Amino acid sequence: MRNRTLLPLLLGALAVLALVMFGGPGLLDQPSQTTTAGATTTAEATSRGTAPGPGSPSGPVAPAPAENPSGLAAIRESELPPEGRRVLALIRAGGPYQYSQDGQPFGNFERLLPRRDRGYYREYTVPTPGEPDRGARRIVAGSGGDKYYTEDHYESFTFIAEGS
Region (Disordered) spans which residues (predicted)? Predict the structure, then answer.
């Protein structure tokens, strides 16, 4: 008899926990107001045509930008040099890359990026017009979606705020 009394209490507690964890009914109806660096609000996404419109619950939605875990200054994707934007598009597409070194692990020996396990970061060459070799510009991409730009061969980095 005691177990039958506890069952409704346990089910009620689980329901309350689910509401707390998942925001309750109507969560998906509320507009997003994300304010992290480089993030996009629902209004901004709609103005770019990347958010679902009314009556279109599964319309095209841009991938959520990675948060800036580094504390480094950010650069908007649109502020990257044209070659950097092209390399960023190639990274998203999985290649092909111009240089054989692209996609290789980046060691973060300078310790300017957040410390992560070996292999977390990969580096990609951003060609510099007029340079006879790979030049100094790179994009370093973390497996968590965070991406960084350096124009001085790892002496400094900026976080790339994608989609902006």
Answer: 32-80
